[in-house]
Amino acid sequence: MDNGETEKLSVSDLTVGYPRRGKEAGMIFPSINASAGKGELVALFGRNGIGKSTLLRSMANLQKPLEGKIMVSGKEIVKYSPNELARTISFVSTERINVNNLKVADMVAFGRFPYTGWTGRLSREDSETVDSALNMVGMSHMAGKNINHISDGERQRVMIARSLAQDTPFIILDEPTAFLDLPNKYEVVHLLGRMASEKNKTVIFSTHDLGIAIQAADKVWIMLEDRLTEGSPEDLVINRSFGSMFTDSRLTFNDETAEFRIKRKAERKIRVTGKGREHLWTGKALERIGFEVSSEKVVDTEVNVISGKGNKTKWELRNPSKIKEFDSVYSLCYFLKNNFSAI
Amino acid sequence: MERNKNILLFVLLGLLTVGLFTASVFTGSVHIPVSEIARIIGGGEPLRPEWKTIVLDLRVPRALTALLAGMGLAVSGLQMQTVFRNPLAGPFVLGITAGASLGVALVVLGYAWIFTASQSIPGNWLLIASAWLGSGAVLFIIMLVSVRVRDIMTILILGIMFGSAATALVSVLQYFSEEAMLRSYVIWTMGSLGNVSRSQMQIFLPAILTGVLISLISAKTLNALLLGENYARSLGVSITAARFTVFLSTSVLAGTVTAFCGPIGFIGIAVPHIARMITKNANHRMLLPSTILTGGIIMLASDIVSRLPGHESALPINSVTALIGIPVVIWIIIKNQKFSKMV
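Above: the input entities. Below: the structure tokens describing the complete assembly.
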């Protein structure tokens, strides 16, 4: 085995789930094969209830897999002693810890558990690790605060600092961006990326924030009904794996913009001409209200976006017999929704 | 600065303990001058020989019993609140107190049934042994369950069920017992700090110290359990071993106190909350010692109140702890309004 092989976390032919009276009944997910290498940020996507949490919990050895193997740094996870594993993999769950009077610094210091003696007293080295973990997540100034008195975004960063203080080569996080506002979601994903690139840790996290995560992830795992697909985000766009995540729903994945849209039945066609952002967003708006947008002259009705100086853009709706002008996308759409049959 | 504040806090608690212990030795229905008490404790002979008996055989053992019982009940309450992550947990939740009561009821009430001719109340040692056996039996069942049941809430509910079953059995026994025996059982349930003789102290003292010592050793584990069992496991804690240690300490403490002093309520639930208010720190390295000291202080104070000079016999200690304690708990709830988040 080469060095890269020994310093990664891989699962092979893994079946995770809850056994319940006979093997099939409680099974969540069929055979999974996946791996995460040193210094990689891995984003795990999948629909609700498909077993992301169960997979992550199994990889942290909090739950026994039904079948298959989990290899951590070239050794099977079940062969680790509890303390050895606690120095190898740290875990951040979705659970909100509501302990009153627990100080931020104490919470982070709990991460030093596998290294301290029976009294739990922190050595100077332990304290330094705690300080640098708080520093990395930008929470040093809050060290003395009660964890019940900080915001959800700050709390999530404290939990991440706790896992950093645990000083493990692998960090597994279950939906660290849930319940956060948009800037905090970006901040947290960015922080996870720094932990992977600067500290050379393997960071695996599950999330529903696809757009944010694929900008930062080195690798993506997509859990589908029948398999797990892995690869760089770009690979998965190219081989259309993202689209297959939601095949049974009305979502379609746009390969170029990497975003999902609700499929709509387009009954009416319209042509849009113009330039730049105004043109792009007018097209999106018309799709939203149920038009099939084309730039070819296939239909009689068309919208001309006339970009003027400053903010004075005008929208000209024309068909062979009439021309009507609008001063915003909103008024254009409002008119079209209510009067299309009239034009 | 934080450190100095903590040292000051413990000095204050220590002084309060010593002060109340002394006050307890000085108060009683028989008036003994301060100088005489000092002489007796110093090993000298007082003016009246019976004073020596009162101080050495009654007052000192009683104050020591109050101190130790308060410490033991408070620290077992704290451990239960942390393990079950429930602010209303106390030493009774595992059914240990109820088990002890059942043991005592079986002996006191069953005694008359077996030895119908004899009207004498069974000896003190027999009561202690039966209470111990009763709580030990409940502990044994709880341990068996907790090895097999993973969910801590299930254990909590089972503990409460065992307790209720034991209480129901006691009622059945009461229904069929003679009046004199019933009376001695009811007196036992009111609690008393004055029944521990000097020879019994040789068992009581080491038993309580052992229980308290086990709890102090588990400070680090209790901290990890604050975050819930998933986090605790990911930090390398063996949940089975942690539960075993905590349950052992709790039942040694609650079982012993109940055996020697009767079922004393309130202290176990309320004192940990008072200690949290004082320390403003959820870390068990702070919380455990302050809970232990506060428990001793409150029990000593309750005992002094129960023996307000002039009364020939002391008020039932159970009523005093409740009457002193309930306003404190209400005050804490109203002031904090976040009782659910206190553990």
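Note for the figure: The first helix of chain B runs from residue 2 to 26.
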